[in-house]
Amino acid sequence: MDEPSRSSGLGDMPHEAFRRAAHEVADRVADYLERVERYRVLPDLRPGQIRARIPDEPPREGEPWERILQDYAELIEPHVTHWQHPGFMAYFTSVACGPGILGEWLAAGLNSNVMFWKNAPASTELEERVVGWLRHMLGLPERFDGMLTDTASVSTLLSLVAARHAVAGPGSRERGFRPHGPGGLRLYRSEEAHLSVDKAAIVMGIGLEGVRRIPVDEAYRMRADALAAAIEEDRRAGWIPFCVVGTLGTTSSTSVDPVEPLAEICEREGLWLHLDAAYAGSAALVPELREWFRGWERADSIVVNPHKWMWTPFDASLLLFRRPEVFREAFAVVPAYLRETAVEGAHNYSEYGVQLGRRFRALKLWFEIRYFGTEGLAARLREHVRLARLLARWVDEDPDWERLAPVPFSTVCLRAHPRQRLEAMDAAAREARLERWNAAILERVNRGGRFYLSSTRLAGRYTIRVALGNLRAQESHVRGCWQALREAAVEVLAEPP
Ligand code: PLP
Fold first, then answer.
1. Over the stretch 148-175, which tens digit does the pLDDT of each residue have?
2. How do residues 105-119 score in pLDDT, each as one tens digit?
3. Which atom of ligand 1 has the smallest separation from the CA of 154?
4. Alpha carbon of 250 to ligand 1 centroid (Å)
5. At what angle do helices 152-168 and 195-204 cross, to 10 degrees?
6. pTM of the entire structure?
7. DSSP 248
8. Is 157 helix (H, G, I), strand (E, B) or coil?
9. Do 319 and 301 meet the contact criterion of CB atoms below 8 Å apart?
């Protein structure tokens, strides 16, 4: 199709061409979402196959829009791993809901950069409101302020820097930080905490030696007695404990660290308590699930990811904190060229973190919360918990399968365990055989293309993870997944040892 001013003008894509293309894109996305199940969840590809079909050099002259969209349709759409697919149960859900996608499009059109109130007034004030709504929906008290960031990894990094500022004092900001080893800073996390805590320690310069891993109990929860003993031992050795990171919904098993004992230790020891509820935090929208979060209002900072189990298009992480002034003191740097922009009276969000330029994330959340309503969101979460319990029950009732962790939320950890086939073996040989079988079962299910599951290791045991919570998955999908697992097990067990 002709696009006369594509090459003749020096401006943007012409309005009419943009309008036509925007309609095509809208149709394309709607078709994709309606028919995503026609794709394999995991594309059948080897590294480099797609790159080989994209020219080495960029085009010298602009290309027609039709050809660009056609290449998207042929090269990209079929060859991504389909996070939107109802059979995607590998990692914590990261599905983008319809109203959220529409908000994301409008935000792209505005391109509002939410640095300071003055250069993003409506976007800043909407973010203030949406953060307040989310805080209220999660049942947290008004003293929590907060903001939206890109990921839990960054929310945690910012919180740990604020923790250092609060506990070690402003000197850590002014003079940098002392080297590690005794005399250095220490933070505490359980053996099951997310890798983002370690990455934050690397970025902050306290190093992995500055991170102490606390053992977990039989349900994969941080042991508060071991934490208290570790802090005492470190103090005696000259370390400066400054922060405890508790996890509400760990990545491997969704275990919940005991918040109240952790809060007591932090209050007694003068340490910052950061809670990573990146995945499970959304469950606090459901009144009967709030029990899992008892005491979390005692934390100094909390991260919950709407882009996980609240279906906000990636990215959107909610960082809540009790003392906003600590974040501001730790991060604000306002040079002369921004002094007039940084007016008082509203949040100048860039002063609370690392980024100067910030995406307008509040719009998609505003759309989503209004479209579904708090009841609608809670009903969906409740359904996912029901589905997870259903799968857990099927596993428990099958003598050849085994569940490897409690199911507080929407993720089920399981493995095939045909006991009769293992009777003559010692414990080590049994575990080795179980690992081989279950890895083969997982590989078969994933190769089948209808489902994508992941694995982890719990107490040394190879574990298959089925992460439900996908907005597009219904009971039939969960049933299909269970059937696929059992069929794969029959095939694997029929193979010669
Ligand atoms: N914390 C937990 C418990 C997680 O499970 C994850 C990711 O799955 C993260 C943090 C990191 O989230 P993000 O990708 O938003 O940094």
1. 999 999 999 999 999 999 998 888 888 8
2. 999 999 999 999 999
3. 16
4. 9
5. 50
6. 0.96
7. B
8. helix
9. yes
